Amino acid sequence: MNVVCLNCGRPYPDTGAPYQCPVCGGLFDDIESLTFGEVDLTHSGAPRQAQGGVWRYASSFGFTANPVSLGEGNTPLISAKAFGSEVYFKCEYANPTGSFKDRGTTTLVSFLLSRGVTEAAEDSSGNAGASFAAYAARAGIKARVYIPESASGPKRQQIDMYGAEVIPVAGPRSNAADAVRRAAQNGMTYASHAYLPFNLPGYATCAYEIVEQLGRAPGAVIIPAGQGGLLLGMGRGFQALLNAGKIDKMPVIVGVQASACAPLAALFAMGITGLNFVTEGATLAEGVRVRTPLRAKAVVEITRESGGRFTSVDEAFILSGRDALARLGFYVEPTSALIWRAMEETLPELPDPVVAVLTGSGYKVRI
User: Which CATH code for domain 102-190?
Assistant: First the structure.
């Protein structure tokens, strides 16, 4: 990885783990394309399960660290009929803490441990906090997690059970982010899944697995998006596979948001002026309730370059989507259920095979 500040161009420091540029406050990102490592993805015959997990692809991560792992990755890819079409469902809720976040947390926490971090904080509506708490426990890092008071009970309990200090914050999701930044100003390491880019190579492994399991590139991928980290990481993963000659084309990427809080959809449709009309309204899909995605420009660009788009889903369709997925055998949280309505709207125009990413487990929410 060649991580630099996108504002002033300074490289990421050789020591410490700052969440933003210590000179200008800018956002860090990797300015080089991901390079796919020497892992053979070729096979013939029907789709099969990948062998190994996230760290099988360590040569693609762009940094060296001893793995802090709980066996993440290698999640099922299951085909089912939906709206008259065959769709492959990537079951990311099968990760150790019940969500896709584990793919990014394993690489992020491994990086933090390599920098000597012994105590760190994170903010989250639930899944990222639970994942961070689990991997911090595994690494021996003392964890503090700031959550909205409205975060679902099971997620809050999960964070607490891993031994993290839980700090509830009144008001919208953005208030929890403000609180942890204040802690960072007082010297706490901010292990942010939004600011730090070291989780993105972990998310890219979801793209690698899909190609291995299908035996080819998907025609399209449908992904729930809040900050858009999974979408961006997977998009970069597909680009790395394309550059390495492992696939012949980029899949069309469809990002899905809740209508109550859909900044990426607004930015995609109307440009920067669209953000003036975005609210941070209450939504059952709490995992994508992010008013100001930090990497919005990159997320929108990679979606547009794929020939894809964003769509947003009204609250009235979320629980019915969850129930429809359950009747296919997939028990997911409301955030994942966004993809059902998105499939109904987009499947006729998407190239096969279509992969829909189920990001979090239904066990995490009581509704």
Answer: 3.40.50.1100
Pairing of β 119-123 and β 189-190: parallel
| Per-residue H/E/C for 226-291 | CCCHHHHHHHHHHHHHHHCCCCCCCCEEEEEEECCECHHHHHHHHHHHHHHHCCCCCCCCHHHCCC
The pTM of the full predicted model, rounded to 2 decimals, is 0.94
DSSP state of 6: T
* Secondary structure E strands in the chain: 3-5, 28-30, 77-82, 85-91, 119-123, 142-148, 165-169, 189-190, 220-224, 252-258, 309-313, 354-358
Q: Where are the domains of the chain?
A: 1-32, 54-99+198-364, 102-190
Pair 72, 53: CB distance under 8 Å: yes
Q: Is the pLDDT of residue 277 over 60?
A: yes
For 299, other C-beta atoms within 10 Å of its C-beta total 26
Is 54-99+198-364 in CATH node 2.40.50.460?
Answer: no
pLDDT at 47 over 50: no
What lies within 8 Å, CB to CB, of 296 at 6+ separation is: 228, 263, 264, 267
Asked if residue 69 lies in contact with residue 131, where contact means CB atoms within 8 angstroms, the answer is: no
143 vs 122: CA distance, rounded Å: 8
DSSP secondary structure of 7-35: TT-PBPPSSS--SS-TTT-PPEEE-S---
Give the separation between CA 236 and CA 214, rounded to whole angstroms.
18
Query: How many beta carbons lie within 10 A of that of residue 219, not counting itself?
Result: 15
